[in-house]
Every structure is written in structure tokens, then in C-alpha cells.
Amino acid sequence: MKFTGTKENLKKALLLASRAIGSNTTLPVLNNLLLQTEKGQLKISSTNLELAIKTWIGGQIDEQGEITIPAKTITEHITNITDEKITLQTQKNNLVIDSKNTHSIVKGLPAEEFPLIPDIKEGIEVSIEGKTLAEGLSQVSFASAFSETQPELSGVLFNLEGRVLKIAATDRYRLAEKTLQTKDGGGEKKVIVPNRVVTELARIMGDIKKDVKIILSENQVLFKTDDVEIISRLIEGKYPDYQEIVPKDFSTQIKIKTSELTSAFKLSGIFAQENNNVEVEVDTKKTALILNSTSQRAGSNTTEVSGEIMGGNNKIVFNYRYVLDCLNHTNGKKIILKLIDPSSPAMITVEGDDNYFYLVMPIKV
Amino acid sequence: MKFTGTKENLKKALLLASRAIGSNTTLPVLNNLLLQTEKGQLKISSTNLELAIKTWIGGQIDEQGEITIPAKTITEHITNITDEKITLQTQKNNLVIDSKNTHSIVKGLPAEEFPLIPDIKEGIEVSIEGKTLAEGLSQVSFASAFSETQPELSGVLFNLEGRVLKIAATDRYRLAEKTLQTKDGGGEKKVIVPNRVVTELARIMGDIKKDVKIILSENQVLFKTDDVEIISRLIEGKYPDYQEIVPKDFSTQIKIKTSELTSAFKLSGIFAQENNNVEVEVDTKKTALILNSTSQRAGSNTTEVSGEIMGGNNKIVFNYRYVLDCLNHTNGKKIILKLIDPSSPAMITVEGDDNYFYLVMPIKV
What we know:
The structure is a homodimer.
Chain A: E1 2-6, H1 7-17, E2 32-38, E3 41-47, E4 51-58, E5 60-63, E6 66-70, H2 71-79, E7 85-91, E8 94-99, E9 102-107, E10 124-129, H3 130-140, E11 155-162, E12 164-170, E13 174-181, E14 187-194, H4 195-205, E15 211-216, E16 220-224, E17 228-233, E18 252-257, H5 258-269, E19 277-283, E20 288-295, E21 299-306, E22 308-311, E23 314-319, H6 320-328, E24 334-339, E25 346-350, E26 353-360
């Protein structure tokens, strides 16, 4: 293999592919990136056996070939080159890296040792803008759980109904759901994507303003743009039928500035260190939400946040961290807190976003 | 005690005083800040028994008094208040914090439990601009060692000779020295300030454009501005007489762009993971510095950096991390590397700064 390309392209592709690299001691080749010439481009692949990333960059190919190289070594190396043009050439199991001012021989492993990354040929296809998908994913994925007994909760549900894609996550104490409109294609399919993959996916897709094609197959899902493919295994199991527990009617609603409510919950949380409980009271007389917390150790706090109220007085106790999780993952300037009574789930929605809701269970005291 | 002040002033003072707070489990009161009214101001003090910080802020005092309050609780609390005006009032061993939208009772400890922070009344006095002192300290302090057998190396030497203050640090493998001109006062005094204190001092002083008064006494040193006092204990012991080993004459000098040399050492370091050794060669024919490194595991690298050479060819082996430490702590655009031979210490100076040098021992191979 002999490939010549720019530092910037190589660096970008290497950093991207490195996102699937953990630190694997049982199978050292998983710490490596697979470099291959393919159709006039350099293809860089990585996998941790759950998530696989493939990316392609253009350049000049003088010799076909392939090799695997430690991801950390080559990425740090290319990052610290100050020259613009870089040549990569295999020499048996080594990769020779040359640029104007630097010459290196990097030890690799044969490409044959690299695990096979499956190609997804068939499945239900839809398209969606990369940035829109990324924002939706980051609005829900934090609500998933790392559960060994209920592995399906360790993932994000992708529920495609025609051209509507609902993504959702829950740990049974709170639930987040976002509804996305897809562009082309469509069909009926429910899959569960591991949360670790979703986190990387949101990071990678956040920079992509073009459309991403999603192909849902039986055991895997593929996210595909012009020059990147992300393949994930799916979590087996049946996702909880959460639609039944989503309340439709509320007795009290209060609209509040997100930044003010965030500060109030952070402040209140200081005095809720033992059990995370913050009592929340809608006071129609004060036209405010009143937060109360008490700690044996630290002391006690009462904080008021003014808001626009619809309905009557109401009261509920939350784990304040669950509320902050939601507030920290929205860009909306105002949120609406919707309450039924102290023992029913409460809902948070974002002003101007009809496609998102967050449910949080009350703490019964 | 009853004090009313602005959020911004309180926040700034609390964050500053919190710099002396560690997490002390044997003496819980050390996790607290001491709040006292003093001469129409609120005084906030902290200590970890090595370093003490006192700071004063203005406001309205309606009642004299004092209390100690957990640093973390009150700092997080004040940071998350969105109101501008805050009132602090003692109620037995509690502090009541009030602002427009929030009311808290924070549990404290009596002021009597707080350790006495000694006042320094007498000593040799000099003045120096805060920012200049901070920059000098950060240029040398990284070269100190955390040594239990040689505690004097765990500190930074302050060597006052008349109106010239030399600050220096060494771990016996490298040495950094900065010469500062003081403004008022002067005298003869050598003290060793713990490196942990110097690190905090550099952070705090970095924002101070006014002069800082330094008072050197027998067992302590005081750094004093209008509204902040930092008191540190001194390390006992005799600082090594390093002046003798500082070479005056060099056979080769090469002037190089700092950013290019930094990239080159980072790149070379990737292939020096086993022993940190990078061979450095001044090549008059190529008018360049050539870096060579080899790793059993990773491979090998050769990198060239062009420079302006005075003198002949030369060669030396460095621990590349020691060189990077120096390069990472200079703002100078170009540095000058000065060599004698492969077994003598090398020197790095910064173009345009005659008051700084860094010595690094060669690795004998």
C-alpha cells in the first residue's frame, strides 16, 4: 500500500475512526485501525465488536494494500506532524510514514488478523439530517440505564412507524422520547441500539449537516453518509411498552425559564445530598414554583422561581438529579412542567418543541 | 454577624479562599471557611495548615460576628443564586443566607474551632507586580520534585539579593531559574516555599495587575495585596548550591521556533515510550536539529526542525518529557538550545528574555 494525502484529511479520519477504539488487552488487534486502499481511496476501519466505524478519504494511491496500525500511535503521530502532505507506505508489517521533515517506521499487525466487519446489504431504509438525529439522540440517551438484568434498558429504542421515527430511553424512573420526521423511505421496525453506540453516534453526527441514511436490519443497524459508515449490533429483547403510562391530562402546568429553573435545582440540590429529594410546589398565589430541600448535614433551602401557571396549586417530590439531567440536555429557553398529583408521573416539555417529552416519576414520601 | 453584599463580590472571594481547602477528614473544620466582620468589611479565611488565605470584601454590616461554614456548600450556594444582593446572618451555629428568591439555613461550626492563622508582622519586605510574579513562578515551579527524602526540592527557592529576587526549582535532573527585579524594599534572604503553595499563588496572582508585597520572615512568607493575603509556611533545609553547575560557555547554539520544536518532541516522544530517550543532533550541513527515537514496541522516528546555528555539530540524548515541560511553560516564540557535549548539561533560554534559563541533564547512553 502506498497512499499520499493531506494532514488535515488524515487527522480528521483517524480521530473519527478512533472513536470505536477502547483499550482491549485480550485482543490487541482491536486497538488498531485497519488501513486499506479501496476504489481509489484510503479506507480506515475500527471496531470494538459492538460498534464499527468505516471512513474514506481521497488522495493519491501508488500501490494497493492494507495493514493494521495502533490507533493511538498513528493518530498522535499525524496530529503532531507540521507538514501538509503525508505519505503512508507499507513495508511488510510496518507502516512507513513520510512527510517533508519527518520519517517514521510504525509497527503494525497483518490486516488478516482484523475481525471481519459485516456489511449490511438489506433492511428498512430511512434518511434524516445528521445534526437533527444527533440533537434528538442527546435529548433522550441520558435517560437510559446500565442494567445487567434488563439489558434492553441499556439502549435507546428506535421505533420506526412509516416515516415517523420515535427514539426513546428509560431507566424506569424517568423516560425521554423524541419524535423525528424521516425524509425518504420508511417502514415498520423496532430496534434497540446500545447507549454507548448512541453516545458516539451523537458526537459524530453532530457535525454532519447532510442527510444520514439509516438501514435497520435484523441484527444490526447502519448509519451511512458519503464518507462514513457506523455499524452497531442491536440489543435483543423487548422494549417496555411505555406508551401506556404516558399521561395525557394534567391538573397543573407551569412555564419557567430553563436557566432559572436549572440554577434553582442546583441550589436546592446542595441541601439534598443524602437522598436527592427536592419538594416542588406550584403556588398560584405567588405565581411561582417553590423548591424545598433539607439535609441533616448541610442545612435547608427554599427557592422560588416565577412562572406562568395554568391550573391549581400542586406539590410533588423529585430526585433533583433527574430533573437537572433533562434541563441540561435542552436548548429551549423555556420549559413547561406538568403535574397531576404527588403520586403520578410528571412531564417536562420544551416550549416550541412539540416532538419531545420527558417523564419523571415522583418520590413517594 | 449580619452582612449584605453583592453576589459577584461574594462569589469571587469564596472561590479565592476555597483554594486553600483540601478535603480534610481528620480535622473537619479545615473544610470550612471562617467568616468574620472586621473593620467594616467581611473577612473570609481558609487554611490547610501549610497555606492560609485571607480576603476582604465590602458591603453593609448590621451586626458584628463570626462563624465557620463548609466551603463547598457556601461556594456552590452563592454561585447558583441568580439574585444580585445577598444577606448572610448568623443564627447560633447556622448561617442564614437570604436573597430575593431564596432562603437557606446552612449548618456551620463555631469560629473558636478554627485554627489560628499567624500574623506576620516583621520581615524583609519587597514589592513586585502580581502578574510578573505569577509568570515567573509558572516558568520554574514545574521543575521541582515531590521528594520525601529531600524535602527542600519539593519547594521553590526565593533568593533575595538586594533588589534582585531569583526564584528557582530543581529535581536534580533539570533546573529552572528566573530573575525578577523588585520595586521597593530589599534585603538578603533565602527561603523555600512549598510547590503546592507556589502553584496556587501563581493562579491567584495571575489576575492581579497591581503590586504584591512579599514579606519574608523566619518561618513564613506573606504575599499581600489590598484585599488578599496569602501566608505560607516555609520548607526547612538548605537549598542546593546550583550556581556552581550552571555552565557559562557552550560549543553549539541553535535558535528554533518554540511551536515547531514542541511538535517535533511530541512526535518523537511517541516512539520513546519505554525510556523517554530522544537523541538530539545539531547538523550544521542541514542547518537543522534532528530528533531520533526508537521503541521496541511502537517503531522509530526521525524528525528535522530547521534553526539558526552558531558553532559546530553536536549531539545529546534527553528525556523528552523534561524538554517538553520547559517548552510548554514559555510564551516566547523562539528558544535557544545550547549544548557543550553529550555528557554535559544543556541549557534552554528564551529569545528576548535574558532573565530565564532552564538546565537539563543529558542521558548518558
